[in-house]
Amino acid sequence: MGKPEKIKTEVTLFQLLPNMLTVAAICLGLTAIKLGFQGSHERAVQLILLACVLDGLDGRVARLFNSDSKMGAELDSLADFLNFGVAPPMVLYFWALQDMPRLGWISVQIFAVCCVIRLARFNVTSKSDLEVDNSGYFVGVPAPAGALLVMLPMFLSFAMDDADLLPTLVICAHMVLIGLLMISQIPTWSFKLVSISRDNVKYFLVAFAFLGAAILNYAWITLIGFCLGYVVLVIWTIVMGKTTVYKGF
């Protein structure tokens, strides 16, 4: 008897688009590390931010075209670790921490390990029934927000045009603190469940246009505002006593 014929399956380019976005994000993250090593720190940060945008789009595009896959999910998780847990601290190290190679490298390792634990916890709970809360809050600072917050010293330095604005020891402590916040039990607000009433859509679009103009014209100051606003939001959730029933690792 002959071997059974294999069923040939084909996928469209639209179905491959989410994975293509993820691969592009990985390439951007790797290039950012290279540019950081070469001293092009502003360009490196810009590529990390662009990689984060692409990483945020791939899942939504996959759902839009109904092209979710296990391979895509694993690829996305690996891209998250590179773009959120490896590239930002590495660029920070090349930017300011090489004068303290031991303490600086320990800070990089702590942040990266905290990020991978945060992502592993998210993956475990998303594949099980452990996460039962729909209140719109995460537990701990999400990895994308952690990547943005950990680069805050660079945003401040670029905005003030002062490479020595913050002491090296402060940058190390800041990196470790953000890493610990990612694996903490602090409830943090999720944007995924935010809804806008039809009456307020026009105001939202105007605000979005203003925000886009601010990023284009005052990128570093706007990013500083994002970070500080997020910190205020986290503090507000703590003060208001927000809790979740997220019981994952």
Give the SSE layout.
Layout: H1 13-38, H2 41-64, H3 70-97, H4 101-126, E1 137-139, H5 143-150, H6 152-160, H7 168-182, E2 187-189, H8 201-217, H9 219-239
Antiparallel strand pairs: 1-2
Helix pairs in contact: 1-2, 1-3, 2-3, 3-4, 3-5, 4-7, 5-7, 6-9, 8-9
Question: Tags for this entry?
Answer:
single chain; 249 residues; mainly alpha; Four Helix Bundle (Hemerythrin (Met), subunit A); two-stranded antiparallel sheet; 9 helices; 70% helix; disordered C terminus
The secondary-structure class comes to: mainly alpha
Give the overall silhouette.
globular
End-to-end gap: 51 Å
Q: SSE order, as H and E?
A: HHHHEHHHEHH
Largest pleated sheet: 2 strands, antiparallel
CATH class: Mainly Alpha
**What's the mean pLDDT score?**
82
What is the number of domains?
A: 1
Rg result: 20 Å
Strand composition percent:
under 5%
If strands are numbered along the chain, what order do they take across the biggest sheet? 1-2
User: What is the number of helices?
Assistant: 9
Enumerate the spans where pLDDT stays under 50 for 5 or more consecutive residues.
129-134, 244-249
CATH fold node name: Four Helix Bundle (Hemerythrin (Met), subunit A)
